[in-house]
User: What shape does this take?
Amino acid sequence: MIAIDQFRADYLTRFEDLYLPAKLPGGRVGGFRWMMEQGASHVDAHHVHIPVATGPGHSVLMTGCPPYRNGIVGNNWFVPATGKDLYCVQDDTSPQINSAEKQGISAKNLLVTTLGDELKLSTGGRSKVWGIAIKDRAGVLMAGHLADGVYWTDEDTGQWATSTAYRKDRTLHPVMDAINKEAVPAKYFGRTWDLSVPASALERLPIKTDAYASNPSKLGTKFPHKVDGGLDKIGPNFFKAFALTPWAIDYVLNSSLRIVKDQQLGQDAITDVLAINLSTNDYVGHAYGPYSPEVLDISVATDRAISNFLNSLFAQVPGGSSAVTVVITADHGVAPNLQSMKDLGFDAGVWSTSDLVKRIEARLDKEFGEDDWVLKYVSPYVWLNQKTIARHNLPRQKVEDAAAEAAMEAAGIYAAYTRTSILHGALPQTELARAVYRGFHPQVSGDIALISRAFFLGGSTALPAKGASHTEFFTYDTRVPILLAGFGVKRGVYTERAATIDIAPTLAYLAKVNQPSGSEGHILPSVSPRR
Ligand SMILES: [Zn+2]
Assistant: This one.
């Protein structure tokens, strides 16, 4: 499984001419075009939940289960009992190993099994299950509870780290320790990331200026990008800058190949899982936006890197490409830079999350008396203060309705759906409402779900003139590739609507194991029937 972080389906077609041909000399395979032309391409594949963010996006890929039951309702959410936010893979009982970050990490908050978990259960633990990504949440949520190894990077050092959830003895696997000792990222200090395609390739981009680009970790707003984090010598800001370069993608994929070799993945008759996330694409997309030269170039670099990875993988695994099922997908897409859309004449912008909380608070004060009504907004939910509601002896629904009504009056808000109406099934019969249902976990989600209009997002008070973001149920956020190739895959282009929750039951079918516990996707039509 290769989940590319923030990779829209249109990147496959918009940049297709820049990608490697499907077949390369010497029997080698290309990248995306090999997957698209020699494998199965689901061209109408979407995430079907809200919010469309990294935690929820990865939580569905290997579980087949939307957040309404898998529990990953956001990257973070508020926990009224503690009065604090909880990060989606936070687990204070599982401290990190080889990371300066204090927060413990595990799959504890994922309330269902993954494909890897089911393989572990059905093979007496002999299946090997690995996850790797720059971002902890991506690897953890795909690999699951029983994985042999899940690794992510310490953002200040670029070193591979894990947690006691995966290594009780508080050491790293020797292979990861060895990679860390090579200090690969440091070799790129001071290098320049330059445009790898002819300048004419940029003619397709609708935006001809770097005015909407942010300057992440002092990489600059346009090519060429000097990768030093603005530092004289290697330090945390350099590693943050490194994470936005093509070399970071190579770092993740080359480390993955070392795991394949060291752990002997795919060497015997028992199916193994390797779940990889390429976090770099998301960092680049957030900083420069989907219509930037940087996103174009990093997509081209990703294609090359995937080609190299697949060729090495197929050379290592007996049976090569016919013995491996490869999936390429993404955890979400991204909206265009909102200021650029506004400048093009669209109604676009940001609604202020703090203003919205104030607006709701004011309405509830006015209607029910001055008190402390709102606890917190964490996208996409507002949490109301249940103690206040109880003290005023008010029906919960009445307060929710007033809060939702106030929210709906704010610019940029399309709808505000209340907990009670969601749990009672009282939302309109729309695809959007179904996505809200699929995102709402009764014990984890908040009280009012806020849904933006097209080209609007919740954010800090000013319109973020730079960069781009995602979370909403529009095609720019929901539509992602589902590409399959290799073992069990029927070559072809599939135009039927498909969902990212379809991937896990499809892989479970090919691996002949139980479906993950919360799986409710369909087996994709692109796999060959097998008993
Ligand atoms: Zn993401």
The first helix runs from residue 10 to 14. The mean pLDDT is 97.
